[in-house]
Design brief:
seven-stranded antiparallel β-sheet, 6 helices, 2 domains
């Protein structure tokens, strides 16, 4: 039966066809549309310029695409905050699901599992990309804001932390997302904040946050799940009675690279930061899974 057929892999037309489809699938908006047209034109011209010299064509097109297609994809990730660019994988769904969470809040670049009882996040997950984490490093930080998607009676407020002795500690930390002004502001929702020991927040937990960014660069990307541990009857702070966690943890993993490490931190106000090392907080991931 006649009709359209996909070119065979051993034919140069296959690579032309593949590159055109790849470039065409890039979001056609602003400079991205121009790049798509450039790539389309280059592919067609290459068909005639290199004819059946497949090796030469593949080398030329690979170099061109590595500079243009990948850049366009990165631009899409870093500059778009109106679309969901993070999706829960199977491991993250073990924690962030309707059974565990009173409310799941999608912030486009990370997801929050929120507890009405604790008025805190229970889990926050995201993926970091190595080409983005140190791309701009915006210095200006935002103000903490109340998460309006949460019913009023279950909300935490920034003023609950005043004179409490605890920091407003990020789970999705701002330095991970400081490549875009709008995106970094998302981390300042109070739904992403827990009462955290100042020494832990500013010294020990900070090392784990820096490590996940280093891993994103080394492995190209890293998935992170942050979890919070509460006692049955936790102490609370502020007018709105925000629960103080006993501890918190991180899972960092990249399935393609067969990498997984887990870290556990107690929320102690008195910590010997001078003797603290990242490896001191390593635990067997099976304890969390």
């Amino acid at each position: 039966m006649g009709g359209f057929q996909y070119p065979k892999k051993d034919n140069i037309h296959f690579y032309i066809f593949y590159d055109i489809i790849t470039s065409y699938s890039i979001k056609k908006k602003g400079s991205q549309m121009k790049k798509s047209l450039y790539i389309l034109t280059f592919s067609v011209v290459s068909l005639f310029a290199f004819n059946t010299n497949l090796d030469l064509y593949k080398a030329k097109i690979s170099t061109f695409l590595s500079k243009n297609v990948q850049h366009s994809k990165n631009e899409k990730i870093s500059l778009t905050d109106g679309k969901n660019i993070y999706a829960l994988d199977q491991l993250a769904e073990n924690f962030i699901n309707k059974k565990n969470c009173d409310k799941i809040i999608n912030k486009k670049v990370f997801d929050i599992c929120y507890s009405y009882k604790m008025k805190d996040p229970l889990y926050v997950s995201y993926t970091l990309y190595g080409n983005l984490v140190n791309k701009i490093n915006i210095k200006k930080r935002g103000n903490f804001y109340t998460e309006k998607s949460i019913p009023v009676k279950y909300r935490a407020y920034s003023k609950d932390y005043v004179h409490s002795g605890y920091d407003r500690g990020h789970l999705a930390n701002d330095a991970d997302f400081d490549y875009n002004k709008k995106i970094v502001l998302k981390t300042y929702t109070m739904a992403n904040i827990i009462p955290q020991s100042p020494k832990v927040n500013r010294k020990t937990w900070l090392k784990a946050e820096k490590y996940e960014r280093a891993l994103a660069v080394k492995l190209n990307s890293i998935n992170v799940i942050n979890g919070v541990v509460f006692s049955d009857n936790p102490k609370r702070i502020g007018k709105h009675k925000v629960a103080i966690p006993d501890a918190f943890w991180k899972i960092m993993y990249n399935n393609e690279k067969n990498f997984k490490k887990c870290f556990y931190y107690k929320n102690n106000l008195q910590v010997d930061v001078k003797k603290d090392k990242l490896k001191n907080h390593l635990i067997d991931c099976n304890q969390l899974l």
